[in-house]
Amino acid sequence: MKKRKICVVTASRAEYGLLYWLMKEIENDLDLQLQLVVTGMHLCEEFGNTYKEIEKEFKIDEKIDIQLNNDNPIDICNSMGIAQSSFGKVLDELKPDIVVILGDRYEMFSVASSSMILNIPMAHLHGGELTAGAYDDAIRHSITKMSHLHFTATEEYRNRVIQLGENPKRVFNVGALGIDNIRKLKLLTKSEFEISISFNLSFKNLMVTFHPVTLENTSSTTQFQELLNALNQLQDTNIIFTKANADTNGRIINEMIENYVLKNEKNTIVFSSLGQLRYLSCLQFVDAVVGNSSSGVLEVPSFKTATINIGTRQKGRQMATSVITCSPITAKIYESIQKVYTIEFQRQLKTTVTPYGNGGASKKIKNILKDYSLERIINKSFYNLSE
Q: Contact at 8 Å (CB) between 249 and 164?
């Protein structure tokens, strides 16, 4: 029997971490053939050349360098153009039965566009979500309209995909993929983690992950400086920074982090990429994740660890009670960090329930990708809610 070829595309460290167990499920199924295409930040030295970590686990079928030489809008448009052209050629050569796309990054928009023109069915993961502070929102919904199977993280997100005109029979609420990592990985102990990062934790510890905001009135650099100002007011607190993505002004934020760490070497450290094992292990030991990363909303609550969600980048996502949202102003950020240490909030943390499920998303997705009929799946009609 001919194996169904499933092509998974990854462009960033966070995305790869979410896709890891799904790829393992596909790879271990005798009726399926995993095709893996790696692009974007994975191939950049400044972001850790993370394709090397992928190669330890999977065979990479194609590497596509989209020349992420800069992060201004014109250069990003150029990278999208290279991606569009390159993916067209690669997908035509690989001839997958279905392409799997996660999320809302601009690289994935180019992948989706190429797949659509080539009449290759697409499965979209984590659609239906809202992130009001970034152009990711428009990209995510556009990919939804180009895709044929949809796997959402909550029922609310499933309903939103249907609201966009997608047939309910093709939209599946499977929970968040990141929960599988938390359930399946054997995480490091505190001492193992400290050794792995060559940095000792203190009585108080924070992780900071801040990505560019592309649709807000105040600039990313202004907002990030407000965050650094708040961190300056803390005492006896160790801070672990992870660098920003390759979005507009991401490199400026990373330069600001490096300069801050140079001035505060005793209690800070920075990483281009911690990798999934060290990142998730870290979430066990920090008091809060501070910034505007989707991980703070999707994964951190499962550890009953606090999240300080700054600004509107994640506005619209369902959030657990462990998430404190504040405006990107120094006083508000500092106030939110102090709230984490209050007796009342610490009690609240213990009862945190994540809205993103209890794991198992990878296997559910694999089974549907394996069994769902692809015959005439390309032809879609708009689903009206009144039907």
A: no
125 vs 152: CA distance, rounded Å: 6
Domains of the chain with CATH codes = 4-175+360-371 (3.40.50.2000), 187-350 (3.40.50.2000)
Q: Of 307, 369, 296, 365, nearest to 337 (Cα)? A: 307
CB under 8 Å to 343, separation ≥6 — which residues? Answer: none
- Total residues belonging to the chain: 387
Q: How much is the pLDDT for 105? A: 87
pTM of this structure: 0.83
Per-residue model confidence (pLDDT) at position 314: 87
pLDDT at 3 over 90: yes
pLDDT of residue 216: 58
What are the Cα distances from residue 258, in Å, to 236, 241, 263?
Answer: 20, 9, 9
Residue with structure tokens 């990278």?
Answer: 79
Cβ atoms of 90 and 62 closer than 8 Å: yes
- Residue 298: closest CA among 184, 153, 158, 163: 153
Using an 8 Å Cβ cutoff, are 101 and 120 in contact?
A: no
Q: What is the CA radius of gyration of the chain?
A: 20
Q: What is the DSSP letter of 381?
A: -
| CB contact at 8 A, 108 and 139 | yes
Alpha carbons 219 and 5: distance in angstroms, whole number: 43
Would you say 123 and 150 are in contact if contact means Cβ atoms under 8 Å apart?
Answer: yes
Minimum mean pLDDT among 229-238, 273-282, 367-376: which range?
A: 273-282
pLDDT at position 225 over 60: yes
Decide the pairing of beta strands 32-39 and 4-10.
parallel
